[in-house]
Amino acid sequence: MRRLSPRANVIPVIGRSDSLTPSELKAFKTRIMEDIKHYNIPIYNFPYDEEEDDQETIQENMELRALLPLAVVGSEEDVILNGERVPVRVYPWGMVEIENPDHCDFMRLRSAILGSHLNDLKSITEDVLYETYRTEKLSRTVLDDRQSQVYPDDLANQSVRLKEEQLRREEEKLREVELRVQREINEKRQQLLAKEETLR
After folding, report:
1. Strand partners, 79
2. Which helix (H) or strand (E) holds 6?
3. What crossing angle do the helices spanning 131-146 and 152-199 adopt, rounded to 10°?
C-alpha cells in the first residue's frame, strides 16, 4: 500500500470478510487502520469540507470513514430472492447477500467509487497524484544528467512552479480569447453602424 498510494487512490478493503466473525472483523479493521496511521500511508478517506459541503454529504462521508477498511464479499453465484436475481455466497448454514448492507460493505463501496465520489477520485488522480508523478519523473530525468539526488522539497517546489506555469499559459489563452472576442464585437458594431448609416 505504501508503494501504491503515491500513484493511485487507495481505499482499504478487506476481502472475504464473511470468513470473520463480527468481533474479529471489528478488531481486524481497527488493526489495519492503526497500521495505516502508524506507517503514514495516504489513503482516500472520503474527504469533506464542513464549510462548503452540505450536511448530507458530510454525514455520508463520515459514515464511509467509519466503515474503513470496507469489508466486502465477492460472489459468482446468483439466487432468485423475492423474484429478483441477487448475487450471494452460499454456505451450508445460509448465504451472504453481496448487495445487503447488513452482510457487507460492497454496495457502499460501489456507490462511492462509481457514483458520489467518482469526480473527486478523478480530480485527485489527475491534479495531485499524476502531477506529483510527472514532476518526480521530470526531476529525475534532469537530475540523472547531473548525477544528483531528488529531495522532497525540490519536488514540491518544482511541482508548484509547473502548476504556476500551466496557470500562466491558461491565463494567456484566456486573454487571447477575450481580445479576439472584443475585436469581433467591435467589428460587428462597426458593421452595424455602417448599415445604419446606409439606411438613413
Report:
1. 86
2. none
3. 120
What's the mean pLDDT in 82-109?
88
Beta pairing, strands 94-97 & 84-91: antiparallel
C-alpha dist (Å) from residue 129 to 43, 156, 172, 185: 12, 12, 26, 42
**Rounded CA gap, 121 and 10, in Å?**
10
Count other C-beta atoms under 10 Å from residue 190's C-beta. Answer: 10
d(CA 129, CA 111): 23
- What does pTM read for this prediction? 0.63
* Spatial separation of the C-alpha atoms in residues 12 and 46, rounded to whole Å: 12
Say how far apart CA 145 and CA 132 lie, in whole Å. 20
Query: Per-residue pLDDT tens for 20-75?
Result: 898 999 999 999 999 999 999 989 888 888 888 888 888 998 999 999 999 999 88
Residue with cell 503515491: 6
Helices of type H across 115-151: 118-124, 131-146
Whether the Cβ atoms of residue 111 and residue 63 lie closer than 8 Å to each other: no
Give which of 114, 81, 113, 115 is closest to 97, Cα–Cα. Answer: 81
Local structure of 150: helix, strand or coil: coil
Q: What angle do CA 4, 9, 15 make, to 5 degrees?
A: 80
